[in-house]
Amino acid sequence: MKITEHIKNAKGKTLFSFELLPPIKGQSIQGIYNAIDPLMEFKPPFIDVTSSREDHVYKEHPNGLLEKVSYRKRPGTVAVCAAIMNKYKVDAVPHLICGGFTKEETEYALIDLQFLGIENVLVLRGDARRTETSFVPTNGGHAYATDLLEQVTNMNKGKYLHEDHESVKSDFCIGVAGYPEKHFESPNLKTDFKYLKQKIDGGADFIVTQMFYDNSKYQEFVNNCRANGINVPIIPGLKPITSSKQLINLPKIFHIDIPDALSDAVHGCKSEAEVKEAGIEWMINQCKELIKFGAPVLHFYTMGNPGPTKRIAEAIF
User: Fold this and answer.
1) What per-residue string of b and e applies to 243-260 under the rule 16 or more CB within 10 Å gives b?
2) How many structural domains are present in the chain?
């Protein structure tokens, strides 16, 4: 079922969902199941599975020369989605990213998803490689999420890369990313909304936001979206703080602000266990407010650690 249909069928009730990372290459999928099992009692209608671009390593040959070799640390997004749907009977939402994939590879992935009965995708540009200061598109791939979105919407119209197949149109429900605190590469919020509106006009059906810790920023983001003619569901992305290091790492990596009250609460803790409790308590209160505001879904970035999310869900669902 499409994400938009899940939200419509909920008739105003806030739903619960979460995101997972595929296993590191060589690891068993059992780790995925271990991360899902504790959360199934909250009846998630869908589960996201991330995708990561390739990175580079240098392999030394016997002659001493170095060869740059591409590798993908967490392959298997499509297969993990299929496994989740088969085992748990819930919808899986694979991430489609620009970096690391050619247009042809993206088309093959979309065809596989269609064969598997996967109806939803989340379209993202993706991050730069760790060795790069800015995003560099893959040769033969897309540079922007809007271009990737167009490829998916074209397939929904029966338009493939090299031919048309009017009789075998895909029917993907397409999600895109939103940034309540502005994408770090945008010069201002006005520009950010302009590009987000382009994605919605281009066929996107729902928005999933970057994580945030100040609900007023989500509320303002939703209100600004509506004022800009963006009327699709806007799903808040959430991640509880569970360690003191995250006060530094999360703003640095994700370009978000930590509210003073949350920062003060963490700094006042005497142990990492207390930090975890403070972070969970903050997120419980944050979620209760979001439900009152009418958030369609509470979407948790679990990073494979279901414990804190389970604690929060127990308190609010």
Assistant:
1) ebebbeebeeebebebbe
2) 1
CA 76 to chain CA centroid, nearest Å: 16
Handedness of CA 151, 200, 92, 5 (dihedral sign): negative
Q: Is pLDDT of 173 > 80?
A: yes
Sign, CA torsion 93/231/195/166? positive
Q: Angle, nearest 10°, between helix axes 145-156 and 103-116?
A: 50
- CA–CA separation, 190 vs 230, rounded Å? 13
**HSE toward the beta carbon, residue 278, CA cutoff 13 A:** 19
Confidence of residue 74 (pLDDT cuts 50, 70, 90): confident
Catalytic pick among 19, 107, 119, 181:
19
Mode of pairing for the β-strands spanning 206-211 and 234-238: parallel
pLDDT for the residue 41: 97
Domain region containing 37: 3-316
Is residue 19 annotated as a catalytic residue, yes or no? yes
Supply the CATH number for residue 292's domain: 3.20.20.220
Confidence of residue 181 (pLDDT cuts 50, 70, 90): very high
Which band of pLDDT confidence, cut at 50, 70 and 90, is reported for residue 68? low
Residue identified by tokens 């997972």 is: 20
